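Supplementary Methods S3. Complex input for the zinc ion-bound model.
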Amino acid sequence: MSERYKTSFRGYLIDHHSPDPPIVTLTKLNIEAYERFYVEANINHLMVYCKDHWGNTYYDSKVGRRHPGLKEDWVARLKPILTKHRIEFNAYYSIEYDNEACTTHPEWRTLKADGTPLTCALETAPWKVACYETNYRGYLLEQLEEIVEGYQPDSLFLDIFGKSLCYCKVCRENFERDYGFPLPETEKGLVEHNNEVVESLNNSAKKMLEEILNLVKGIDPDIKVTFNFAALYNKDIRDQLDYQFTEPWAGNWLSAAYSRDTAVGQHPQLGPGDVSEVYNYQPESIYELAAAQIVAQGCRVFMFSGSQHPDGTLEHEEARRIGKAYQEVEKYESYLTNRQLIADIGIIQSDASAGILGEGSVPASAIARVRASNGHKEALLGAMKMCDYVNYTWQIVPEQTLDLKVMSHYKLLIVPELYCISALLAEALRKYVSQGGTVIIDGKSGLYNNAGQKLKHYVLEDLVGCRYINENTFYDKSDWGSYLDLVEEKLWHCIPDTFPPVGPTRQLVEQQQGKVLARFMNPATELTSKKWVNWWCPPPSIKTDEPAIIENEIGKGKVLFCAFDFFKLENKGFKLAKEMFKGMVGHFITTPSIKLLTPYPNSISFVAYERQADKQLILHVVSNIPEKTQGDCPIISPGVLEISKLKWQIMDASCAYPLEETLAIEDHQDSVTIQLPDIRIHQVIIINFDGRE
Ligand SMILES: [Zn+2]
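Predicted complex, serialized as structure tokens:
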């Protein structure tokens, strides 16, 4: 049984989707050179092309076509090398992109509404998209059978999975059979029937996945299966996978955290495509930092690049660079397993809220669809950035895993524009608050059902302390549609004496309980080409009585409600939003488990784990400066850790990586503080404790 996927932290793919000779000849393929490359790159996971986007196989396929430049079964040549060096053999198979199959079988192509074939939208990569509702399904299943039976890979990676919107005869018939009306063709029809169209595509993908899993696990019950962008799919489909692979969508640090938290127990792997770039090399520090960010956030690192030349020789410079970064990972690898994340703040993630109120019609491409953002996803991203900025411990919590017991582990829960809030979740939140929990809720949370229809009132009206009246869109042409008139409160101590701007729209609410902490201020005028002709948005001018932020006390707990898109502000250049968040968190979390006091909150990040078996806290501190400066890594003092004495009885602290050294502990009333040593890119801090609460 292969359990390699649990600990293969150093992954790589020689990414070589290759046309036929004479462009890519592969005349100088040499197995010894490949072996040297793998050893130099210091990898323990290799993704191997079995079939690429061109539809060429790299093994002897009876049903497909081997790359014509190959003189032998290349996968068969590689396999013993991987076994020899204990490298996980991960078989790559391209599902929707297959130029060969689409050329030899035009009837297998995914069609647009006008009957012309769909290709990948990228101008330089117009891959032909096959539809697996046609007989292409049998073709791909036969190839997967050949691969799994013939080569026994440890794991299988399905690229370009999902189901693209297709108007072929079969897809049209299937839709009409299931929904009783024709598959919508116009922008208007697609927007109107967004739910049905997306559901039908998701169901098609789910069935395809089930069939693939049945087939490959029927041959090898131990094979581990994933597909690309797994973290961005809904939980019901994610849960069918053995492990999760995702390419970063919000930088390495935040994307890895998101993957870790949406793939608990699923050994997530994060693969940035912008780190290693053959011929156009990034500084070595960028490789080192990317690897550190990914493993620190609990994922396995994976890199990929076009390191194979057209004649089949390799770019050894790339192996050297990857090898250097992976040598660093190897030094702290023993700290990466058997540990549980520490998080005072939970950010609630909702598949239902992510699936409604998107912009425009259903994107045709499955990959574009899964990557498309919406209000909830944007708010969630903003909340992650803010939590990272304030340097408290935090994590994403999928709503399906949340009940009162899970909630009770958090000192603060964030409800970031959670459009639809189920009765179950609402009830659990009420109990959590009444028992002393604190919640920050923003935007239009709880104002929609899961079909995207607007409700009359907030589902959590009793918690947010106000009644929804309507949305104020009067100033929505202006990026700064409102300003905040902050009521003097301790929690705004980080904000200068001004009126911070907020986004274009806001909600008009009627206060019922609680205390108003900020009111909206109107701009001098709405933005029109006659009333306001200027370089900037109309400035604040008129105070209103409209509540913008309300703090409500219920039982032993507290709720802070923002009647505007608070968490999204961070993504849109509203610079004071994170300072406001800092005030809120400081106000609500009086005794954080662990917090980092750093003079460089935009550059220094940390994450903390507990290894209970060893009575150890394992902390990663990362300097993100190289990615902000194209590779410069000045050595700086990252700050001071503050650890709660109420939670752990701390014995000693040390730096385990890069240099081993004992760290002094300073004792305070409720906490201990530890001055961190100077940092270049990454350090691992070990703190031993005797007892815990
Ligand atoms: Zn089709």
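The chain has three domains: 4-165+214-337, 343-588, 594-692. The radius of gyration is 27 Å.
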